[in-house]
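Q: Two folds, back to back.
A: First:
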Amino acid sequence: MSSRERILGRVRRALADVGGEDAPVERGYLRTHGGLDAGRTVDLLAENLADYRALVHRCSEDELPAVVGRLLLEHGARSVMVPPGLDPRWLSEADAERVEDRAGNTPHELDRVDSVVTACAVAIAETGTIVLDGGPDQGRRRITLVPDHHVLVVRVPEQVVSSVPQALERLDPARPLTWISGPSATSDIELDRVEGVHGPRTLEVILVG
C-alpha cells in the first residue's frame, strides 16, 4: 500500500459517520462578533487597514477622481496599469500614461509600471483584508503583484463585511482570489520587516461612500 492510499484511507475512515459527500456540514461558529452597525464596521476596516500600514483615504464618489489623481501625483507615477473594466471616470484627473491590462503584458512591461488602480470584490473589517477576484475592474492577479504602488478602491458600505465567513459567502472559490492585508511584507529574515517583497510596497485604500 502506498503512502497516498494510506492517507486517503484515514480520511475515509474519519468521514465514515458524516453521511456521504453531499451531507450538509454543520457550521455552528459565530459569523460575526460584536454586532457593529454599517458605519462602525467601516471604521473597524479603516482601523485594521491602517494597523497593517496601508494608507487609508475617505471620499465621496464625486471626489474620487481628484483623490486618485492626487495619490498618483504624490507617488510620482508616470504610468498606471488599468484593468479593462475600471470606471474611466476614476482616472479622469490622473496625469499618467495608461497601460492596459493585456494577456500579452511581459514581466518587464509590468515592472516598468509605476502604479496600478483597481476596485475589489469584498473587504473584511475584522481582519483588515481586501479580496480581489479577477473581475473586470480588478484585472489579472499579476497586475496587483508587480507594480510597487497599488491604489485600491472600496465602495462603502456595500462592499464591506464584518467577518471572513460573510466574505466567503460572496466569493466564488473557482475564481482567482487574491487576499490582501496591507502592503506586501515579510519578517522571515532576522525578524526584520521588509516591505515590497512579493507585491506592492505601498498600498493606498480609498473608502468611497
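A: Second:
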Amino acid sequence: MSVTLAAESLSLAYDKRTIVDGLDLAVSAGQVTAIVGPNGCGKSTLLRGLSRLLAPTGGRVLLDGDVIGSLPTKEVARRLGLLPQQPIVPEGITVVELVERGRHPHHGLFKQWSREDESVVAAALEVTELVDLAGVPVDSLSGGQRQRAWIAMALAQRTPVLLLDEPTSFLDIAHQIDVLELVRDRNAREGTTVVMVLHDLAMAARYADHLVAMSDGAIVAEGTPGEIVTPAVIESVFGIAASVVADPTTGDPVVIPHRRKRDQP
C-alpha cells in the first residue's frame, strides 16, 4: 500500500525542549490510523508536526512524496485537513460561517463560491446534526456542539488526508460513536486517509485499521489493533496491568484494567 504521509527522522520541540526526537512514521494511503498513548507522550505534538503547524528541528515530513514545508499554504490546505485539539473560535462567527471556511482552500482568483460549495457545506451540517444551529454563534454553543462544528468544517474541506486531534473531546458516548462512524464512512466512501489522536483504546481498536502507540516522544509499537492492544503493550505504554478480551459482537479487543504498575508490591 502506498504511503501518503511520512515522517523521516522527525524531531519536534517547544522552547528548545525536545518532545519528539528522530521519529520515523509511514502513514498508509486510504487507512485510518490512530495514535494512542498517555498524556504528555507527544501525540498532539506529532500531529502538529505532520500538519506543518510546528516546524521540525530535525528531519522532515513528506506529503505524497513532497516535503510539506516547501509546499504553498493553500496547496497544503487542499490536500490535508486538520482539526487541532483546541481550535480558536473567531469572535461572533456562526456555525455555517465556520463550516464555509472549510471551502476557502478550493477557491481562487477565477473560482468563487459555487453550488458545489453550498452542497458540501449542507452535507457537513447534516451529518454533524448542526442544521438547526447553522445561524447560531459558535462561541455560544456547548463544548460538544462546538466540537461538532469544527468537525463539520474539517469535513467540508474535503481533503484526501485528514488529521484529527482528539475529535471526540467534550462529546458524550453517543456523539463519540457518531463522529467516529463519520470518519470511517468518509474513509470507506472516499478513500480518505485519516490520522487521529485518541485516548480511548477501545474506540481506537474499533475504528482504526492501524494503531501507533507512543511513549515519551517515541513510537513504542505499531500494527493492527489485535497486535497492539495486548497486555504487554498496555503495560509498557500506560503502566497498568490489564486483561484484553474480544468483544462478543465485533471481535474487537476490549481492555479490562487491573491496577497501576506503580501500585505493585
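Q: And?
A: The mean pLDDT is 90.
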